[in-house]
Amino acid sequence: MADATRAAAGRLGEQDTFAIPIAGGVATYAEPGSPFNKLAGLGFGGPPAATDLEKVERAFAAQSCSVQIELAHLGDPSLGELLTSRGYRLVSFENVLGAALDDRRTGDPEPVPSPGLIVRRSGADEFERWLDVMFEGFASADGQGVPSHEVFAREAMANAQRDFATAGVVRYAAELDGALAGGGCMRVTSGIAQLTGAATVPAYRRRGVQTALLAARLADATAAGCEVAVVTTQPGSKSQQNVQRRGFDLLFTRAILVKAG
């Protein structure tokens, strides 16, 4: 989050972006409507001081932006009481899952489920096509599990993906019968493979695209020497089922709390 926000600052050449460490997490703001406008990881360093939380709230208020907090259930229980007393309301949940890459269930790619399905790295020359696929996939949820609370404009997604690339995120494309059917991303840092999103065009779903994208990224992560892979999914979603079949286990659930700007 912090690296991507710094990339946004470099792209925009402005001073309005920020990345503020707080209580083991980080509060980030990139630009209006950005997926990076949130406070992630709060509580892993204990409860925040009231003055630190006020500083973050003022920073978001200066940008006329609501404060969105991802609060892990592993954090101090007093955090929930603190945030609700300050006007935050619960809007959704997300699951964070992980897998050890020396486990044979995740270390070896599974056979490609559908003939004609190829997964490869996606270059800058097809960025717009790749983005169209990701945008269509995310915009057309399959209706299974808890729905996402977030909706982003295409321009905001495009800017976020450009900043992700600057922060070291690699894009993957899945081709089925010669057509671009899906896409995914991964970032490798400190021995951890962060699977930072994947989507399939509705017309190509249930044909193994997500399975192939997952297998390709896990194979690359293993080759890069990663020990652990992590991914965030909506609770009860098809995405969660897919990764659990590959040996991922639930690490923690995080509550999404929002205070209006």
Quick take:
The chain has 261 residues and is of the alpha+beta class. The protein has helices spanning 2-12, 50-61, 78-85, 104-107, 127-139, 154-166, 209-223, 238-245, and strands spanning 18-22, 25-29, 38-42, 67-72, 89-100, 117-121, 170-176, 179-189, 192-200, 228-233, 249-259. The chain has eight helices and eleven strands.
Could you explain the architecture of this structure?
This protein is α+β, with helices and mostly antiparallel strands. The protein is built from eight helices and eleven strands. The chain has helices at residues 2-12, 50-61, 78-85, 104-107, 127-139, 154-166, 209-223, 238-245, and strands at 18-22, 25-29, 38-42, 67-72, 89-100, 117-121, 170-176, 179-189, 192-200, 228-233, 249-259. It has an eleven-stranded mixed β-sheet with strand order 1-2-3-4-11-5-10-9-8-7-6. A hairpin with a 2-residue loop joins strand 1 and strand 2 (25-29). The mean pLDDT is 90.
